[in-house]
Specification:
single chain, about 150 residues, alpha+beta, about 25% strand, globular
């Protein structure tokens, strides 16, 4: 019986922090792209993950009311997929997607980002933690990875 080849040694988790400033959103996207490249995740899946991560970071920057906060972005391999988590310290403000055409009290024409997140990710959600809230999105990996989905 032939020996099984070892699975590629990928980090199972990587994270970074970024200041809660709009100008740092493109840097966060570039760091997510770097992590995905290191993990050999490419193509449309990498595009979708980077887009969702960017949207979640932009939402945290825009809506977190804690002064001088940092946002933590974590990517991790979970089962047959990849989990993106964006955490900020404003536990009181949980996200809620808006329906197309719905307007909020401080509407500036935005607000459909979570609709995009829902369309690109397998599933998404949020949870309050002891000191932060986390908004997450889960992506299935392609069958070529050897994972039965």
């Amino acid at each position: 019986m032939p020996a099984l080849a070892p699975r590629p040694a990928h980090p199972r988790r990587d994270s970074f922090r970024t200041p809660k400033r709009r100008r740092h959103v493109p840097e966060a996207r570039a760091e997510v792209r770097r992590i995905l490249k290191d993990w050999a995740v490419g193509g449309e899946l990498a595009d979708d993950i980077a887009t969702v991560a960017t949207e979640l970071v932009a939402n945290a920057v825009r809506h977190c009311q804690v002064p001088l906060a940092e946002i933590e972005v974590t990517l991790s391999i979970r089962g047959c997929g990849l989990l993106v988590e964006v955490a900020d310290p404003d536990r009181a403000r949980l996200p809620a997607p808006r329906a197309e055409g719905e307007r909020g009290p401080d509407d500036d024409g935005g607000g459909l980002g979570l609709v995009l997140v829902a369309a690109l990710a397998e599933r998404w959600g949020c949870e309050a933690r002891p000191f932060t809230k986390s908004v997450w999105a889960y992506f299935l990996v392609p069958r070529e990875s050897g994972c039965d989905t």
